[in-house]
Amino acid sequence: MQIVGYMILLVFYLCYFIKMFQQRKQGIQTDHMGKGKQGIQKKIEIMMKGTTIATFIIEILSIHINLI
What we know:
This protein is an all-alpha fold. The protein contains two helices and no strands. It has helices at residues 2-25, 39-64. Helix 1 (2-25) runs antiparallel to helix 2 (39-64). The relative contact order is 0.13.
């Protein structure tokens, strides 16, 4: 089951990054969190970005140690 979990995660993020790359080729920038902001709004968006990255790490760890 771990291999299936890894494969699902791989397909999901592969689709996500392919879409982001294709949009960038069309001049669409998709990563705006924390850019061009100031004060508390910038801090909140940077914290959200960090949480998103932490979620990915937790997903990998949960599959690896069989928490699903």
